[in-house]
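User: I'm new to structure prediction. If I give you an amino acid sequence, what do you actually give back? Let's try with this one:
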Amino acid sequence: QVQLVESGGGLVQGGGSLRLSCVASGRTFSTYIMGWFRQAPGKEREFVSAITWIPGETYYADSVNGRFTISKDNAKNTVYLQMNSLKPEDTAVYYCASDTSHLTFSGFEYYQAQEYDYWGQGTQVTVSS
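Assistant: Good question. You get back a string of structure tokens that encode the predicted 3D arrangement of the chain. For your 129 residues, that looks like this:
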């Protein structure tokens, strides 16, 4: 199995920045994609961003496009989410996720949480006014 450990959450003022990290361990041989989802109280879990391990294609939700940047370090089995120009509406628990069960991107709905088979514990991001 794969274990995901997140860090970097916290409290920040609007307009500020945070960088989230997610380290994968265990059987990471076949990692296909890693992504970030978030969930605010009373809301459904929503897609934020994702990156394929090879070749590193990136995807963003419209709500964060231009403000957030996803990246990875293959040697460290780590994915990052650089969050700039944070807004109060970005406040949520952020979850790291990975998928190891797909061989090709064809038919993979990266924006759907159900497509991912491993999840981190979640890290709280709070953006104040």
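You can read the tokens as a compact description of the fold. Here is one thing that stands out. The CA atoms of residues 32 and 116 lie 10 Å apart.
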